[in-house]
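Troubleshooting entry. Yesterday's outputs looked truncated, so today I'm pasting the complete records for two proteins to confirm everything comes through intact. If either block looks cut off, that's the bug. Protein one:
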Amino acid sequence: MSTGPLSEDRPSDAIAGLLASLSLFASLIGLAYRPVRVIPFAIVLALVATAMGGRHARLAATALFVGGLCFIVGLAAAVITEHPIF
């Protein structure tokens, strides 16, 4: 019997997951509150989490997709309802 190598989690994996989840939260907040101020910051966080890679790569990719979608929907909703975008 042999066992496979143990995969140890790096601290950067935890930071990447935290950044990706923070990006998701900020994107959804930006959807309701001034999308041009908040969502680009969230997209930058998602890009940093994606660059860090690791165990949370799918979460970071999801954060990028949700950030882009929230930016488009948030801008459209702000223009339609005549709310400020900045």
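Protein two, checking that the full record survives here as well:
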Amino acid sequence: MGTVYKPDEIRALADFAHSHELLLHMDGARIANAAASENLTLRQATGDLGVDILSFGGTKNASSEPRP
């Protein structure tokens, strides 16, 4: 089970970070699933909410094939 932050929660985190001259980094390991669960595009779930840096790897989102 993972936590899916609501858009207003991400915006609040971004606002707090930016008010302290910080950047907001989001680990995007499961961002595709989180965005889909909120019916958002990736842009709407990240940049539009104030996320400055997104690390997005394909290993958890890109393939349904089991790894050896």
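Both blocks look complete. Sanity check on protein two: The mean pLDDT is 85.
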